[in-house]
Amino acid sequence: MPDFSRLQVSESSILMRPQGKQMEALLALALEADERYELLKHGLQVADHGITIGELDFLIYDHKNSKVLHVELAYKYYIHDRQEGAGLFEPWIGPGRKDKMNWKLEQLAQRSFPLLHHPLTKPLLKELDIDPEKIEQRLCFLGELFLAEGETSWDDTILNHKSHAGTWMSLENFLAKDWGNQAFSIPLKQDWILPYNPTNTFTAVETKKSVKGFLETGKVPMLKFKKEGENQSMLITRE
Length: 239
Known about the structure:
single chain; elongated; 2 domains; 31% strand; alpha/beta
């Protein structure tokens, strides 16, 4: 990974973008500031008669190893629900239950990476003086993983346990729980990457009402709060 500690960026320049584009912009800025990597192209669109058929996220030159890399970036939020399956990736599903980790990996394998060798990609790479046969492909799969309330970890050693970002709870269970004097903040999705902000909080009663409103419009809310001195994040799902 490039050195993100050297990155200087205004929040507003990033947060005004959709979440996936936020992460792409951050990685692009980090690559441009890094001494090892040279960003050759970001977001190379491949089109067929004006219709985009796909996009190569990043083409990077690795000066340390003297190689051109094609890097696909993914940043996702998943909840761990054992009812979704018992395999390695099956239990990890998007909080809106419209996406699954294994589906994303399949899409990357069958569509994103093969695009590098598509006939329409070759002339675009030629313009950049890049030989597609000498490119190595990499996946940068980042994200935040949420366990069900009461779970503390998962079994496998493939997924990075540092990605554990919080818990998730169904709306029914959240409404039924007595939260006492607990205060919550409810950031918009574009602000999920920001830390907890205690200056803009709601009571449990106000939060329960807001959470119901989010889910009624098809949006999954994230709650951020401080509990026993620790910052917490929680996703509330319809089921």
